[in-house]
UniProtKB/TrEMBL annotation:
GO molecular function, one term: preQ1 synthase activity
Keyword Ubl conjugation appears in the UniProt entry: no
Taxon lineage: Bacteria, Bacillati, Bacillota, Bacilli, Bacillales
Functional description taken from the UniProt entry: Catalyzes the NADPH-dependent reduction of 7-cyano-7-deazaguanine (preQ0) to 7-aminomethyl-7-deazaguanine (preQ1).
Cellular-component GO terms for this entry: cytoplasm
Signal peptide residue numbers: none
Protein name: NADPH-dependent 7-cyano-7-deazaguanine reductase
Active site: C57, D64
Keywords: Cytoplasm, NADP, Oxidoreductase, Queuosine biosynthesis
Length: 166
């Protein structure tokens, strides 16, 4: 059983363990839930790899497919993973450009968690012979994480990675 107590953020969760999960087919940031970070005295990364992200082109309505990578250094809260899965699923019928999707995801997670640092990278499969891989990040203002964000932004594509999702 969990080492967490109900007072450490578990009592407010509505999705985890719920057998009657409803899937939203429209963008739904209100689905996101968080729990207390029991290790807020140290820096550490949490990374989510979401290989089944889909959204729609806002002009043609054609589907776009991506692997979405979300990495963050939490402060007081961490995102509950089932709510993140359902939130990402809610983009299924959402029409936006790739660059908008990664920035919307990052902004919603910043609002929910107030993380020390976060980055979101979408590796979209090609359509029309070209792939688009937008990457965005954020470091909490007036902290060392601003310098980290600047450094990672300037160097994130210095050593191109092996693309294996397409």
């Amino acid at each position: 059983m969990s080492g967490r107590s109900q007072d450490e953020g578990l009592k407010d969760l509505t999705l985890l363990g719920n057998q009657g999960t409803k899937y939203s087919f429209d963008y739904a940031p209100e689905i996101l839930e968080s729990v207390d970070n029991l290790h807020s005295t140290r820096d550490y990364f949490v990374k989510f790899n979401c290989p089944e992200f889909t959204s729609l082109c806002p002009i043609t309505g054609q589907p776009d497919f991506a692997t979405m990578y979300i990495s963050y250094i939490p402060d007081k809260k961490i995102v509950e993973s089932k709510s993140l899965k359902l939130y990402l699923f809610s983009f299924r019928n959402h029409g936006d450009f790739h660059e908008d999707c990664v920035n919307i995801i990052m902004n919603d997670l910043i609002e929910l968690l107030d993380p020390r640092y976060i980055e979101v990278w979408g590796k979209f499969t090609p359509r029309g012979g070209i792939s688009i891989d937008p990457w965005c990040n954020y470091g909490r203002p007036d902290t060392k994480y601003v310098e980290m964000a600047d450094f990672r932004l300037m160097n994130h594509d210095l050593y191109p990675e092996k693309i294996d999702n397409r």
